Amino acid sequence: MSKKYSKFETSVIHEGYNAKDMLGSLTTPLFQTSTYTFDTAEQGERRFAGDEDGYIYSRLGNPTVKVLEERIAALENGERGLAFGSGMAAVSAVLVALTKANDHIVCSSGLYGCTFGLLTMMQEKYQVTHDFSQMETSEELRSLIKPETACIYVETPINPTMKLIDLEMVSQVAKEFDIPVVVDNTFSSPYLQRPIELGCDVVIHSATKYIGGHGDVVAGLVVGKKEFLDSVQMTTQKDIGGIISPFDAWLLLRGLKTLPIRLDRHCDNAEKVFEKLRVHPKVANVYYPNDTSHPDYPIREKQMKRGGGVISFEIKGTKQDAQKMLNALSFLKIAVSLGDAETLIEHPATMTHAVIPEEFRRDMRITDQLIRLSVGLEAWEDIWHDLEQALDSI
Ligand code: LCS
Q1: Does the beta carbon of 312 lie inside 6 Å of ligand 1?
Q2: Rounded Cα gap, residues 293 and 314, in angstroms
Q3: Whole-angstrom Cα distance, residue 325 to residue 212?
Q4: S-S: 314 plus which of 127, 226, 347, 369, CB 3.0-4.6 Å?
Q5: Ligand 1: which atom is nearest the Cα of residue 346?
Q6: Could you read off the pLDDT of 68-125 as tens digits, one per residue?
Q7: Domain 8-30+61-256, what fold?
Q8: Domain range list for the chain
């Protein structure tokens, strides 16, 4: 799509919406409708035949959802956006669209638990196999690509270990083989990282996280080339049907307006909490993309504006100690999800990544001692005091 505004902070508020088209309404109206009326039977025929523009039925398109799709496309610098009812609806629509039986996917050696579950199901039901790649060198990545490889699927930062993958390197290798790179950009949002600008082809978000930002929506977004997303819309979106509700699209448009402001605060708070965690005697390791001593730091500098709001850390102790620490928190919330105003803390091995068999979890370095912290928007001192007293209780 052609972008109207060059600055991200202006695009998050204005892109894709013209108040003049909507009776001057400042905010995008909520078209809470399932269907649209035709003036005549012939008009209905023309709309279904694609001979006339206009809405038909909300699974096929909705004006509120359309504004969201145009806005996210502009923010990711892609040609077209599509909205879904969850991040997993988006991931599955893209992966099913890109593959056929007996194809192969190369993925990053760490994935959100349900994405791992989807790949396992695709392997069992449709013989779509996959290999995990460390993606640390182009040679290793190249060595895993087969004639039947349909795409490369990458999370960066990886949930929950916060390992980073060099997207420019991955997209260069993919171009040699003419295969698309799909990036799950959930942990960064387009404010911190824009994979399409680095040569990648498709971007996916669990919009449930930073894009919504308020813990009240489950949704997914996809951005990519118009030709590919047109085909997703007409196949895996239309016929599998994981669409977003107009109200949830409206909430995401509201959340997006403050994305840069919220994320800067998430990052400020996370940087402070990271400095405290790294020197706490009960903490063995801390994983945060803005750690200047981490080997991945040059990748952070190259492709992410800042380190983000998620920190993972390993405590010194056992699984029971990790659980004891969570139970000792006073106001920080034990909950999965991330990117909300509230600080959320969880135990990946028994929660978000529990579906991954233990041997794979070990390869992904998801230990029983690992805790994931989504640093919220509260005063960082309050966040730290609660964490500190909980760590001291171990
Ligand atoms: N991709 C990533 C990287 C995710 O973290 C999640 C959800 C999804 C996709 C799926 O999105 P959803 O369908 O939930 O909107 N991650 C979660 C997490 O880490 N805690 O709870 C959900």
Answers
A1: no
A2: 17
A3: 29
A4: 369
A5: 20
A6: 999 999 999 999 999 999 999 999 999 999 999 999 999 999 999 999 999 999 999 9
A7: Aspartate Aminotransferase; domain 2 (3.40.640)
A8: 8-30+61-256, 259-392
